[in-house]
Write a structure and sequence with these properties.
One of its GO terms (cellular component) is nucleolus. The chain is of the alpha+beta class. It is about 30% helix and about 25% strand. The strands form seven sheets. A six-stranded antiparallel β-sheet has the order 23-24-25-26-30-31, with no helix packed on it. Strands 1, 2, 27, 28 and 29 form a five-stranded antiparallel β-sheet that branches. The model is unreliable at about 345-380 and about 505-550 (pLDDT under 50).
């Protein structure tokens, strides 16, 4: 359970002239005192409990403060940077900043960090870091460049991990985000590429971190209104290598993705976060507290005068800009429990606090009130899935042990057992992560593809066909039936790996597949059942035939699924009986696609398809033979298949002719080879005439 108490205004006059509010709020060496840095020229020291300023300092006219002032906890002095390169240090007795200690640096400063237990650090805009003492000893020292060109620092945090200082900063370049982690006990700088996980690139509006025993939890609020989490290992296996980290969605639609004003989040404790922003496009901004463990909105407070999208958290106080005034809202968070998350704890509440027990509707991603007992049970199962996913990501981020594949197999078997016991339980994200470990086999978890077939989960089926060895031919054929029969509407929403078709499928076809498929499947008019007339038409209209043949009869997603079938291992003896059970219309459609792939291969001299891991020519030809062997007597009776069979007949005939010609040439090459072997018996110079018949 969480409570937002009545807030109060800390500043008595409008703060600053900048559009984005204050530069920062930093704690002083006294627990109840905070440094507030204006976006213009002023730093003010406030005592929160008394709601009054204790001191104020300004740079002179024409100068501008460029990063928030901080307190040096080792000396009790204050530090600020103005005009990007000029560093000032003063104490409470000083009045005029123009007369205090000054150091002009050789590079522009992004932020000064200071926390209890260590000296302040200076982070430069190019990514280099210096301790304050070393920097003051030689202010004009050369500052190296750490980040690449056009890479810009967006956010940074300084904290202690096991009594050792750690700095993390996030950069952005062309919509891609990177995390740098600097551990000062080992002087190692680790770089991570953040894979956002969304289909479309989104702008990250805010970051926040918390530290556990093995991981740094990096949470981000994206412009799509969702909260994502990335687990950064404290002790990476390869610290100096650029590693890739995938973000996972933690909360969905906590703020409006279309809101024009900024949004922010801050981690309050292990299970609670504060979010600042408009929950809906037309609504006013509000401050809300979410329980991340149970996916519930605990409480919220409207901010009718608007906010700048900035949020600071110290102790039990939240600082934010409300209108043009810095406001403090105290809060309380209790130990997370299901009763507390549902608002069912028996204790008094302040009448002015708006508490909203609120579940995320996992079906529509919209808010809904608590329903029947069955509805609550279903949601709890979903919460359990999220908890399992978080724990699984933590486990997969640890160093692998020799029995890793066995452990992964046991986890899959355990999850599948629960899937069968509880039909509503289906942790597909967890199963996808487990398959992507590349250590599973079909024999290790035979129930995985069985469950995926029952759920018609084509994404997992495609992944299994690509990753798992020893898949039985009966299961491969069952996947083929699903891929050929599933509706286009269902496929449109499925997350399919498209890399095998991306370079030879026309994206325009996606919207025209239905018309093309119908045209190709219908083929000839059923009334024109004379094979000779069909052949005659083919001769009369070769151009039309070529156009039809080079048009893919499938949508790109269905084609990508069938490519996974083509690349899978099989035994012809065991596969043929199962192929005979495929409906004739589906066999014809598959043959049309295979013939289309053959024509695509014929377009280049290497007889290969472009793209990443496409089917090979041998795989295409083998499957054409398999389908014809299994279904020829049925397919030959279907009018829609006549044109296709005639095209295949002409193709085979041409191949026989080519082979015959090659056999003739082979004899001549053999004779040439014999002549070449007799080369040693010739003189240094000779003229020979060879006649080839």
């Amino acid at each position: 359970m969480a409570d937002l108490e009545e807030g109060f205004t800390l500043t008595a006059v409008p703060l600053g002239s900048g559009p984005d509010g204050p530069l920062g709020v930093e704690q002083s060496d006294k627990t109840d005192q905070f440094l507030v840095t204006d976006s213009g020229r002023t730093v003010i020291l406030y005592k929160v409990s008394d709601q009054k300023p204790l001191g104020s300092w300004s740079v002179k006219q024409g100068q501008i403060i460029t990063c928030p002032a901080v307190c040096n906890f080792q000396t009790g002095e204050y530090i600020v940077v103005h005009d990007n390169k000029v560093l000032r240090i003063w104490n409470n007795e000083d009045v005029n900043l123009d007369k205090v200690f000054k150091a002009t640096l050789s590079a522009e400063v992004y932020r000064i960090h200071s926390i209890q237990g260590t000296e302040p650090l200076v982070l430069f805009k190019e990514g280099a870091v210096r301790g304050l003492e070393a920097l003051l000893a030689e202010p004009q020292q050369k500052i190296e460049t750490v980040i690449s060109d056009e890479e810009v620092i967006k956010w940074t945090k300084f904290f202690m991990v096991f009594r050792h200082p750690v700095l993390i900063f996030i950069t952005e370049k062309h919509g891609n985000y990177f995390a740098y982690v600097q551990k000062f006990n080992s002087r190692i700088l680790s770089k991570y590429t953040l894979l956002l996980g969304q289909e479309e690139k989104c702008v990250i509006q805010s970051f926040s971190t918390s530290v556990g025993q093995k991981f740094i939890s990096l949470m981000s609020l994206s412009s799509d209104g969702c909260v994502y989490e990335t687990l950064i290992p404290i002790h990476p296996s390869e610290p100096e290598k650029n590693q890739r980290l995938v973000q996972s969605q933690l909360l969905k639609s906590v703020v409006s993705g279309s809101a024009q004003s900024g949004a922010a989040l801050s981690i309050l404790d292990q299970d609670h976060i504060a979010v600042l922003g408009a929950p809906r496009p037309a609504s006013k901004e509000c401050l809300s507290v979410w329980n991340t463990k149970f996916q519930t909105l605990q409480t919220s407070k409207e901010l009718p005068q608007g906010t700048s999208g900035q949020l600071w958290y110290y102790g039990e106080n939240l600082f934010m800009l409300h209108g043009k005034f810095l406001t403090v809202i105290p809060y309380k968070c209790e130990v997370s429990s299901l009763a507390g998350a549902l608002g069912k704890l028996k204790h008094s509440q302040d009448p002015g606090t708006h508490v909203t027990p609120h579940f995320v509707n996992w079906e529509t991603s919209q808010g809904c009130e608590l329903g029947s007992q069955n509805s609550e049970q279903s949601k709890r199962i979903k919460d359990s899935e999220k908890h399992i996913e978080v724990e699984l990501r933590k486990f997969l981020a640890t160093k692998r042990t020799p029995d890793f594949h066995t452990v992964i197999g046991d986890v899959v078997i355990g999850l599948l057992g629960r899937c069968k016991a509880e039909p509503s339980f289906y942790p597909r994200n967890c199963l996808i992560q487990l398959v992507q470990t590349h250590v599973l086999s079909y024999s290790l978890c035979p129930g995985l593809m069985e469950v995926a077939l029952e759920k018609t989960d084509v994404q997992i089926l495609q992944l299994c066909l690509q990753q798992l060895p020893d898949i039985p031919e009966s299961v491969t054929c069952a996947c083929l039936k699903v891929f050929l029969s599933i509706g286009d509407d269902t496929l449109q929403d499925a997350d399919i790996n498209m890399e095998s078709v991306s370079d030879y499928m026309d994206p325009v076809q996606d919207g025209k597949m239905e018309e093309q498929t119908t045209f190709l499947q219908n083929g000839f008019n059923p009334e024109e059942d004379n094979c000779d007339s069909c052949a005659q038409k083919l001769k009369e209209k070769p151009q039309a035939t070529a156009d039809e043949s080079t048009s893919c009869p499938l949508t790109p997603k269905r084609a990508a699924l069938l490519n996974a079938i083509l690349r899978s291992a099989y035994s012809e003896t065991f596969l043929l009986p199962h192929l005979k059970d495929i409906p004739a219309q589906h066999s014809t459609l598959f043959l049309q696609y295979l013939y289309f792939l053959y024509l695509k291969c014929s377009e280049n001299a290497t007889m290969t398809l472009p793209g990443t891991h496409p089917p090979t020519l041998n795989q295409i030809m083998d499957w054409i033979c398999l389908l014809l062997d299994a279904n020829f007597t049925v397919v030959v009776m279907i009018p829609e298949a006549k044109r296709l069979l005639l095209s295949l007949y002409k193709f085979v005939k041409s191949q026989i002719s080519i082979c015959s010609e090659l056999n003739k040439i082979e004899v001549s090459f053999r004779e040439l080879q014999k002549l070449n072997q007799e080369k040693n018996n010739r003189e240094l110079y000779s003229i020979e005439v060879l006649e080839l018949f």
